[in-house]
UDP-3-O-acylglucosamine N-acyltransferase (Thermodesulfatator atlanticus), 348 residues
Amino acid sequence: MPYKLSELAHLLKATWSGQDVEINGVNALAYAQEGEISFVESPRFLEEAKASKASALIVSPALKEKLVNRNLLVVPNPRVALAKIAWLFYREPRPEPGISPLAFVAEGAEIHESASVLPFVYVGKGARIEAGVILYPGVFVGEEVFIGRESIIYPNAVLYPRTRIGQRVIIHAGAVIGADGFGFAFDGEKHLKIPHFGHVEIEDEVEIGANTAVDRATFGVTLIKKGAKLDNLIQVAHNVEIGQASVLAAQVGLTGSVRIGNYVMIGGQAGINNQVGDQALIAAKAGVAKPVPPKTAVAGAPAIEIGKWRRCVAAYERLPEILKEIRELSRRLAVLEEALNGRKDPQS
C-alpha cells in the first residue's frame, strides 16, 4: 500500500517539505529508486543523498537546509523514523495456521488453532502454544514449555523442558534455550556434574539471534527481560539476568549469575564476569572483571573507564617513540654523569 509523504508525516507526527509524493517502499541511499524513501543519518552522507534517486529523504532538522530542492520528511531521529516506516512496507510470508501431519505433538500438549506448526516440529507433553505462534521445521519444544502469543521460533531452535517464552518473541535458527549450565564440582580426581533444576524465562518482545545459547538456572531462573535484543552466537550462562531493552552484540559471553541492568549496550566479543549497572556501555572485546556502575562506559581487557582507556591506547601507540626517547635520555644522562665524575677532586 503506497503512502503520501504527508501521510507518513502525520503517522510520525513529523513535518515535511517539497512535493507530496507517493511512497511505495524504503531503501538505502545507493539503491533507492523513484517512489522509494531513504534516510540520511549524518552529514557524511550528504553527497550520497544529493545523488540518490529516492523520491524523498528522512532527515534531521540540522540537515534540512543542506538538501534544497528535495522532498523531505523532517524528524528528530531519522533512524527511529526509518524503523517505523519500514514496517509499513515489509511483508514476510506467513505459514497457514494448523499442525502439519509431519509434526509430532505429544499427548497433553495444547496448541491454539491459529498457531502454525510446520513439518518435523516436536512438541512435548504438557507444552502450551498460544495464538499466532509459528514453529518452523525442526523446532524442538520440550515438556511443559510455554510459548506466548505471536512468537516466532525459526528452524532447528531448541526449547528445553519448562522454558517459558513471552509474547511476540523471536528466536532465530539454531538457538538453544534451556540447556544445562556449565556447573561441575572437582573432587580431586574428576569433575562431578551438578544437575540444574531451574529454567529459562524470556519476557515479551525479546529477540534471540541465530545459534545463541541461553543456559537454564542451577536453581531458580535465567531471566531475559522485556525488549532485550541478543545478536547471533552469544553465550548466556546459568542464572544470568539481562535487563529490559538491553542490547548484546555477537559473541558476547556472560558468566554464571551475572546481572545486566536495563538499557545496557554490550559490544561484540565482550566477556562479562561481574555486575553491569543500568544504561552502562561495554565496548567491543572488553573484559569486565569488576562491577560497572550505572551510566558508565568501559573498554579494554581488563575493562576500565573509557576515557582512561582511550588515553592508554594513545600512549600505547606512542610506545616505540617513547622508548626511543628514553634510550636517548639514558645515553645523555650517562654522558653527563661521566663528565661530572671526571670533574671530581680525587682527594675529596
User: Anything to note?
Assistant: The first strand starts at residue 3 and ends at 4. The mean pLDDT is 96.
